[in-house]
Amino acid sequence: NAGVTQTPKFQVLKTGQSMTLQCAQDMNHNSMYWYRQDPGMGLRLIYYSASEGTTDKGEVPNGYNVSRLNKREFSLRLESAAPSQTSVYFCASSEPTGERSPRNEQFFGPGTRLTVL
Amino acid sequence: GESVGLHLPTLSVQEGDNSIINCAYSNSASDYFIWYKQESGKGPQFIIDIRSNMDKRQGQRVTVLLNKTVKHLSLQIAATQPGDSAVYFCADPTPRNSGTYKYIFGTGTRLKVLA
C-alpha cells in the first residue's frame, strides 16, 4: 500500500497562474482533506470531503476549489495563484467510524511545496 | 474560538535524556486528543491518543498525561533518540455532522536531539 500520494512534490508558479494539486489514497477511506502548513501557523484545513460526492469548506477556503473525482482521488485547484498561497500543502484521508479512536486517525501524504512568485 | 497550542516552539534535548512537550487547550468540552509527529519533509504521523476519562496513557517510549483541571496535556519521550527529532503536534478532533472530525492542530514544537 502506498497510503496517500501527492503530486507534484514541488511547484513554482507566477502570480495569476493556475494549477491543480493531485492526491490519491489506496486505503479505501471515505474522507479526504486538504491542509496548508505555514511557519508558526500549524496545519489549517482548506477543504474536506466527508465522502465521495461531497465537499465542504474548512478554515481557509478562499482562493481554492476542490474536486472529489472518485473515492480514491481528491484534487485541489488554485485558479489564480497569489503569493499568499505560498505554502506546503498536505492531503490526508481517514475512515470515520462515529467514534473518536485511532480508527479516525488522519493519514497524511508527503506534501507539495508550492511557491508563488 | 477553540484553540490548541504548544508552549514552546523549540525544545533541545540531549540524546538519552527524557523529553517533555506541553500542549494547552481552551475547549473545556474537549475529550479526546491525538499527538502527531512530523519529520522533516514528511506529513504528520499518529503517535498516541488519550481520552478524557484517562489521566495517563503509555505507548512504546512515549507517555501522554492529561490534566483536565488546567486544560493541559504533555507528551513525554523516554531516552530520546536522534530519530525523535521532529515537530510534534497535539490535535483535538471534534465531531462534525458529516461524521468526520474537525482537527484543530497546535502550532507544533520542534524537538532537536543533541548528540
How do you describe this structure in short?
The complex is a heterodimer of chains A (117) and B (115). Chain A is mostly beta strands and 117 residues long. Chain A has no helices and eleven strands.
SSE order of chain A, one letter for each helix or strand: EEEEEEEEEEE
* Total beta-strand segments of chain B: 11
Helix-strand category of chain B: mainly beta
Overall radius of gyration of chain A: 14 Å
Distance between the termini of chain A: 36 Å
Shape of chain A: globular
The structure class of chain A reads mainly beta
Q: Classify the helix fraction of chain A into a percent range.
A: under 10%
Low-confidence stretches of chain A: none
According to DSSP, the number of beta strands of chain A is 11
Mean pLDDT of chain B: 88
Structure in words:
The complex is a heterodimer of chains A (117) and B (115). In chain A, 0% of the residues lie in helices and 49% in strands. In chain A, strands 2, 4, 5, 6, 9, 10 and 11 form a seven-stranded mixed beta sheet that branches. In chain A, strands 1-3-8-7 form a four-stranded antiparallel beta sheet, with no helix packed on it. Chain A is mainly beta. Chain A contains no helices and eleven strands. By secondary structure, chain B is mainly beta. In chain B, 0% of the residues lie in helices and 57% in strands. Chain B is built from no helices and eleven strands. In chain B, the strands form two sheets. In chain B, strands 2, 4, 5, 9, 10 and 11 form a six-stranded mixed beta sheet that branches. In chain B, strands 1-3-8-7-6 form a five-stranded antiparallel beta sheet, with no helix packed on it. In chain B, β9 (86-95) and β10 form a beta hairpin. Chain B starts with a strand and ends with a strand. The model of chain B has no long low-confidence stretch (mean pLDDT 88). Chain A binds chain B through residues 4, 31, 40-45, 48, 50-51, 54, 56, 90, 92, 94, 96, 98, 100-102, 104-106, 108-111, and chain B through 9, 31-32, 34, 41-46, 49, 51, 89, 93, 95-96, 98-103, 105-108.
